[in-house]
Write a structure and sequence with these properties.
Largest sheet: 8 strands, parallel
Helix content: 10-25%
Shape: elongated
Number of helices: 8
CATH class of the largest domain: Alpha Beta
Number of domains: 2
CATH topology of the largest domain: Spore Coat Polysaccharide Biosynthesis Protein SpsA, Chain A
CATH superfamily of the largest domain: Spore Coat Polysaccharide Biosynthesis Protein SpsA, Chain A
Strand content: 25-35%
Distance between the termini: 56 Å
Number of strands: 27
Oligomer: single chain
C-alpha cells in the first residue's frame, strides 16, 4: 500500500506566513502539520509515500528528506494548480495497481489508521458539520455505505463532510475516472476535484464505506490553526526540550518549546508552541504559535501567530506576522 500526500496548495488564507513557508510545515504542538500526518501512517506500517508538490515544494522535499531519511519517498510536481483531482492524476505512473491511502497535507484527523487500512472496501473519512456547503459531502445509506458524493453542494442532502482522508482499493478505476474527467473538462467550482472522480467510481460499481473520524483539525486559517494547536497540545501534553536556558520563567501548561530557546523574565502559556532557537524576554505569551529563531522582547501576545526569523518589540497586540519580519511597537 502506498500513501499519496498532496501538498501543492499555496495556502493563501494563511498569508503572510505562506509567502515563505508551506502551510504543511507550520509548527503545531511541537511538530508540523506534515509530520503528524506522516507519522500516523508510519505507525500503521506504511512507508512508501508519494508527495505532490507545488508552491515552495523544495522546502517540503528538503524537510522530508532530512526529517525522515528512511522513508521511501518520491516527489511529483504539480506546476499548474488545476485542483486535487489533477494533482492525484499526476501520480498514476508511481502508484497505479497499488491500494492507496490519500491524506491531504493540510488537515489533521484523529482516527483509527488500522481500521482504515484493513477495511474490505474503499473508504472515505467523514465528519458531521453544521454547514456542509463548503465541503465535499457524502450521502450514506443505513448500513454506512456511501451512495453518492458531491463537491460543495448548494443544497446538501447530507451533513457528512469529506475530511480529506481516502483509502482506494480500485486505483485503476480511480485513474480511469480522473483521466475521463480531465479529457472531458468536467470540473466543479472551476477545478478538477477528486470528489468527482470518486462519484464516477461509485457509478462504476466501486464500494465505499464511511469512516467517521474522532476529530478533524483544520489548519486553513489563523483562527483554526490556533484552535487546533491548543487541542493538540492538550492531547500530547507538555513538550519542553532539555536544551534551553530559562531564567525567572513561569510555564503555564500545556506548552511546547523547542530546543535551544532562551527565555527570561516571562510567562509562557497556556496553549503556546515555540519553535527552536527562539529568544523571549520580558514577555507574556498565551494561546499562540511562535516560529523558530524569533526574538520577542517586552511584548504581551494572545491569539497570535508569529513567523520564523521574526523580531517583535513593543506592547500588547494580537498579531499575524510572517517570516523574516522585524517590527518595533512603540
Amino acid at each position: 500500500m502506498k500513501a499519496i500526500i498532496p501538498v501543492a496548495g499555496a495556502g493563501t488564507k494563511l498569508r503572510p506566513h505562506t509567502y515563505t513557508q508551506p502551510k504543511a510545515l507550520i509548527p503545531m504542538a511541537g511538530k508540523t502539520v506534515l509530520s503528524i500526518i506522516v507519522e500516523q501512517l508510519q505507525e500503521a506500517g506504511i512507508h512508501d509515500f508519494v508527495f505532490v508538490l507545488g508552491y515552495l515544494g523544495d522546502k517540503i522535499q528538503d524537510y522530508i528528506t532530512e526529517s525522515y531519511p528512511d522513508l521511501k519517498a518520491s516527489f511529483i510536481y504539480q506546476n499548474d494548480r488545476l485542483g486535487l483531482g489533477h494533482a492525484i492524476s499526476l501520480t498514476r505512473s508511481a502508484v497505479e495497481g497499488e491500494e492507496l491511502v490519500i491524506v491531504l497535507g493540510d488537515t489533521i484527523c484523529e482516527y483509527d489508521v488500522k481500521q482504515l487500512i484493513d477495511a474490505p472496501h474503499s473508504v472515505l473519512g467523514v465528519k458531521r458539520v453544521d454547514d456542509p456547503r463548503n465541503f465535499g459531502v457524502a450521502e450514506l445509506d443505513e448500513s454506512g455505505m456511501i451512495t453518492r458524493v458531491v463537491e460543495k453542494p448548494q443544497i446538501p442532502k447530507s451533513n457528512m463532510a469529506l475530511v480529506g482522508l481516502y483509502k482506494i482499493k480500485e486505483s485503476a478505476i480511480l485513474f480511469e475516472c480522473l483521466e475521463h474527467n480531465l479529457k472531458e473538462g468536467l470540473k466543479s467550482c472551476d477545478e478538477f476535484h477528486l470528489t468527482d472522480a470518486i462519484e464516477c467510481m461509485i457509478q462504476k460499481g466501486a464500494q465505499f464505506s464511511a469512516l467517521k473520524v474522532l476529530n478533524w483539525f483544520d489548519c486553513g486559517n489563523k483562527e483554526s490553526l490556533l484552535e487546533s494547536n491548543a487541542t493538540l497540545l492538550k492531547k500530547f501534553g507538555n513538550s519542553v526540550s532539555d536544551e534551553h536556558l530559562f531564567e525567572n520563567v513561569i510555564i503555564v501548561p500545556p506548552v511546547s518549546i523547542g530546543k535551544n530557546c532562551e527565555i527570561r523574565n516571562s510567562i509562557i502559556g497556556p496553549n503556546v508552541s515555540v519553535g527552536e532557537n527562539t529568544t523571549i524576554n520580558h514577555s507574556i505569551i498565551k494561546e499562540s504559535i511562535i516560529g523558530a529563531y524569533a526574538d520577542l522582547f517586552d511584548i504581551v501576545l494572545e491569539h497570535s501567530l508569529i513567523g520564523s526569523d521574526t523580531e517583535v518589540k513593543g506592547e500588547s497586540r494580537s498579531l499575524n506576522i510572517g517570516d523574516n519580519t522585524e517590527i518595533h511597537l512603540g
